């Protein structure tokens, strides 16, 4: 079913390039900039947030008075978040997104520098689309875009 996707096939990428808007969440500036750069190289529109609370604010879940939450939700096709962040972990962000009626369909990918099977399983069981090892690579983004394309078709 994934023919050509794992190899970076242009057909998989080209059909999503126009629409994929990613919210990238990481407390580490260097990691956040790396993710942003790789996503932009892959023709994604990128919005960044330095922590889970900022991400929730952007998505309209942080401030009850925020009125443009649906506008942002419609624009975000994917959330990529670091697992380990102060204040709110990527797992907690994942749970908030999946609890929201407006956001539960938005795929969430968790990034971590630690390969801990129980953590990975917990995230996947709670609705994460994928769990990826840091550092994020261009080939990871290509596979992810193809995976999302297959899920939508």
Describe the structure.
Its main location: nucleus. Keywords: Cytokinin signaling pathway, Nucleus, Phosphoprotein, Transcription, Transcription regulation, Two-component regulatory system. It comes from Arabidopsis thaliana. One of its GO terms (molecular function) is phosphorelay response regulator activity. The chain has 153 residues and is α/β, with parallel strands linked by helices. Helices cover 44% and strands 16% of the residues. It is built from 7 helices and 5 strands; from the N terminus they run H-E-H-E-H-H-E-H-E-H-E-H. The N and C termini lie close together (11 Å).
How is the secondary structure organized here?
Blueprint: H1 10-14, E1 21-25, H2 29-41, E2 45-49, H3 52-59, H4 69-75, E3 78-82, H5 90-99, E4 108-112, H6 117-125, E5 130-133, H7 138-152
Helix pairs in contact: 3-5
Keywords: Cytokinin signaling pathway, Nucleus, Phosphoprotein, Transcription, Transcription regulation, Two-component regulatory system
Subcellular location: Nucleus
Modified residues (4-aspartylphosphate): 82
Query: Main β-sheet: number of strands, strand sense, barrel status?
Result: 5 strands, parallel
The unreliable regions are 1-17
Estimate the strand proportion.
15-25%
* CATH architecture verdict: 3-Layer(aba) Sandwich
- CATH fold title: Rossmann fold
Count up the domains: 1
Class inferred from helices and paired strands: alpha/beta
Radius of gyration over C-alpha positions, nearest whole angstrom? 15 Å
Envelope shape: globular
Distinct helical segment count: 7
CATH class: Alpha Beta
The spatial strand order of the largest sheet comes to 2-1-3-4-5
Q: Can you say what the CATH homologous superfamily is?
A: Response regulator
Helix content: 40-55%
Q: What is the quaternary state of this protein?
A: single chain
The ordered H/E elements are HEHEHHEHEHEH
Question: How many beta-strand elements?
Answer: 5
Give the CA-CA distance, first to last residue.
Answer: 11 Å
Mean pLDDT: 83
Pfam family, one: Response_reg
Family: Belongs to the ARR family. Type-A subfamily.
GO cellular component, one term: nucleus
Protein name: Two-component response regulator ARR17
């Amino acid at each position: 079913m994934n023919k050509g996707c794992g190899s970076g096939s242009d057909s998989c990428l080209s059909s999503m390039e126009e629409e994929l808007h990613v919210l990238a969440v990481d407390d580490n500036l260097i990691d956040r900039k790396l993710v942003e750069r790789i996503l932009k190289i892959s023709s994604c529109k990128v919005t960044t947030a330095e922590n889970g609370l900022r991400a929730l604010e952007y998505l309209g879940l942080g401030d009850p008075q925020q009125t443009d939450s649906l506008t942002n939700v419609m624009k975000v096709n994917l959330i990529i978040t670091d697992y380990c962040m102060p204040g709110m972990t990527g797992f907690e962000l994942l749970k908030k997104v999946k609890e929201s009626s407006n956001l539960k369909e938005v795929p969430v990918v968790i990034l971590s520098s630690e390969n801990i099977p129980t953590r990975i399983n917990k995230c996947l069981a709670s609705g994460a689309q994928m769990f990826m090892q840091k550092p994020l690579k261009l080939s990871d983004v290509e596979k992810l875009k193809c995976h999302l394309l297959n899920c939508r078709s």
